[in-house]
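User: Teach me something about this protein's shape.
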Amino acid sequence: MKLSIVLSTQPAQFQAATFKGDLETNLAQIASLGYDGVELAIRDPKLIDLTLLDRLVHSLNLSVPAIGTGQAWGEEGFSFTDPDPKIRQAAIERIKSQIPVASHFGAIIIVGLVRGIVKPGVNHQQAMDWLVKALRDCSDAAKPHGVRLALEPINRYETTLINNAAEGLDLIERVGADNFGLLLDTFHMNIEEADIEASIRACGERVFHFHVADSNRWYPGAGHLDFRSILAELFSTGYQGWVSGEFIPQPDAAKAAKENINYLRKL
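Assistant: First, the predicted structure itself:
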């Protein structure tokens, strides 16, 4: 089981970015705890020094399995489904700008809340049409570089678009790109899925990346989810990707990261 954990490369409001702040210190701590990789939340690639980042990551023998993009929504309000076409296009261009970074690290680009919500004055069908168009555009741009995109079904309290695995699978059919799949997250699944294991099984090979957080969005083992059963189902599908911790840093980032890896390694 290849384990990674989320690190934001810039300051962010998003609570479940487990590590934020000093990049070098946090990467060293993540490596010292025994993680195999680090999932990088990057709001804007222009704000990072890729050469430095590459040197730090490789000096610590860490991989980068995925690039999180949600801060483009959280910090700047970019989304694929905004009524303003300039904002929609800015969101598309921001995701496309992540392609060289993802290609460099062999990482997946995550499409989280940058997909947006159904805003007032916009009907659901229109929002879905915009979403499909944007995802086709980004998937087409990423394909020549060997980069895959993974959309994360997110619970109903955070978005009105693609809340569960079944909706995610329908979206995959509409987009029609073989480099477009899903990121499943146990926190969101606990809210939206009647049967987490059955939903994982239904998604099968379309699961490109996997997030873990317990029912309370703390580290696995701090809530009531059955991770032995969940992960057994995930790997029974033939999944060969990463299990990445994305949970709130409680009681603090270091303690949460240590508890997460100790709990998951025992499984």
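Now, about its shape. The chain has a mean pLDDT of 95. DSSP finds eleven helices and eight strands in the chain. If you'd like, I can walk through any region in more detail.
User: That's plenty for now, thanks!
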